[in-house]
Design goal:
alpha/beta, 31% helix, 2 domains, 12 strands, 5-stranded antiparallel β-sheet, Rossmann fold, Hypothetical Protein Yjia, Chain: A,domain 2
Amino acid sequence: MQQSNPEAGPGPTVRQIPVVVLAGFLGSGKTTLLNHLLHHSGGSRIGALVNDFGAIEIDAMAVAGALGDSTVSLGNGCLCCAVDAGELDLYLDRLTRPAAGIDVVVIEASGLAEPQELVRMVLASENPRVVYGGLVEVVDAAEFDATRARHPEIDRHLALADLVVVNKADRADGGERVLGLVRSLVDRAAVVPASYGRIDPEFLFDCRPSEERVGQLSFDDLHTHEEDEAADGHGGHLHSGYDTLSFSCDTPLDPRRLMRFLDSRPEGLYRVKGYVDFGAHDARNRYAVHAVGRFLRFYPEPWPAGEPRRTQLVLIGAGVDVPALDKELQACAADGPHTADEHAMWGVLRYVPQPEEPDEPDGPEARQASGAPGLGASDPREPGSAALDPEDLDFDTPDPEEPDL
């Protein structure tokens, strides 16, 4: 991975670090894929720059658990709007310094970021240690048709990609058809089907585009972006059509009230992610909550040592009443001190995977060790209720087995 810097003269070579842009629409499974790579990197060290769309950095919290000081987080906005190429260089300088010992940097974009602009920013880097490593686009096979109807610009994203990961191709209806369709939309990219975001880490190192493709991409990207920017001032970015609510509460939530809120959430509320404190109902664990569309799942995990116990949620939607949603969530707070009531948690436990299910973020052994309440032999989930497949998620809890989120 070492390359000579043409401006460095006859001196020592400059070790260039590939910077890979990881993109995909809301809930496609970007953080799941990134966390899988972190735990199965084959000895390579991966740095990450994580961009959350919301004031609470939910995705960055999940990735930081695996990376520690190899994570740079930029929350509450769109990376391609919040910083310019020079500012991005400051972040990349921290991750590519020789002392960090990092082999590849991954920029995980928010689900509403514009990948072509992020690619342009990396290409514009003046850091001699930075080299563009390619665009990885994550696609949810089960939602591909709906996503394409809602966001036709996905065709352009696929055409720019150097690697396309099609999640859930093995379980989605018409998975082979989606794979064929995606392959027809890409330029020269490899298209890789995946389950639970599991891909060979070598793909991350091998997806770097050719110099010819980089040159063409940088010209076309800059030209298109300037036209869009002049048209609407936002570069046609997806987030201009979405609303976001960042909710934080130091009082434990009442599980029954929260489930009433989630069961009645409006159609326009497309994404819910974060951590919930249920207080005495499960004092040992916080609950990672993930919702995409009508799908929902909870994952109990032990509270990190020394971390304040609070609920932190990010909601993303289109055409939703944000103040009303905030008021409804505030009404979910428990009235006061209470004792544990196992019946109160039944609604939540309907959406907790059973220990034998392969999609638990912490695996069956970790679930048993956490002491989290779980489902028994009989599953109280009602017929027709939509439990969320973890691949519908955008972030993950680190897992030695990395089942998926």
